[in-house]
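Escalation from tier 1.

The customer reports that the assembly of two entities below gives different structure tokens on two consecutive runs. Tier 1 could not reproduce it. I'm attaching the input and our single run for tier 2 to review.
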Amino acid sequence: MTTDQELRDAYQLVAGRSAAVPCPAPERIAALAAGEGSETERLATLEHAMQCAMCRKELDLLRAAAQGAEEAAPARTFLPRWAALAASVLIALGVGALAWRVIPRAPGADVLRGGAPTFAIVQPAADARVTPPVALRWRSVPGATSYTVELLSGAGGLVSSWTTSDTSAAVPDSVHLDSGATYGAWVRAELPNRVEISSPVERFTVR
Amino acid sequence: MSPSSSRSLDPESAELEALVARFTQFASRIGRDRGLAPSELDELVQELRVRLWQARNGHFNNVSAGYVRRTAISAALDVIRRRRTDRNVALPAEESAPHPIATNARPDELFERQDLAARVARAVDGLAAPRRAAVRMYLQGYPREEIAALLRWSEAKTRNLLYRGLADLRAVLRAEGIGPGEAAT
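Tier 1 run:
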């Protein structure tokens, strides 16, 4: 037995016949299908679903429903004409107001600049040499519900990953960092509605 | 007029029917990939069509992409609940049929395959949790992108956990004298 396909063939002979615990509620399978809930919950539901033919079918049905809707749904909404007209007027007013603020009207006039600071790791600094324990700190993202930190090896492989609601974290003691080795780290901020933004990877070397 | 009628439709109704047709097309493709029977998807499509028509003719005055998604999931949940309340209903033939095993295999070959499958399943059971989840999905035929989406893992994390999980699995099987344990992913 050497190939992935041979492993699959063998596994699928028995998978789906051995779920020994009650099936999770349909809502939990729907949460899994939508990638919602904690990772612990998703793993627990998945553990069951992958061993229960009925629940796996339910999961597949929910995925087909969600993905089918996403691909088929119209790009526009069906709005009544008066609402569409009102929306157009509001947009036009908004664009006009913004243009009035942004476009320089005369030499020396104020120009609106700025915006949210870029989501990035601020500690350790890029290419810094650090002494364990290594502390990481990053800019907060308004509305973020959690941050997932991934520590990468110099080759880009995953060394460790953990989730926090804070904007700082120390590399866990359980993670051994080799002296003289270079590591990378990046943070993913999770926002409501399954939106996720990522920081650039910052590299640092362990003293 | 029945919801599925295509005669004398006003533009919005025609657009809704077109939406349902697109949904059917996409969901069928996804369902086919996952081995869902057409009858299972038919029930879902009917539920979705009825709900969208009711929404259009009722107090809703717009149908957004987000609304379609929520409605489709809600329709799927109702289909699932109905099936759960009547688990005595015979499963579709493709569900209830045993996994195909070469019919010309000798009894001792069948026994060997079943034994091998049971040992692979036990080895998977013994993997660490995140790796086990990735390996279970992969061995059930889910692509890496699907594993990453369900577990909200990055592509790199998914690849890493799957790679390590399969390596662990092969190591366990190798220790039991099953296969040379070559890496294949």
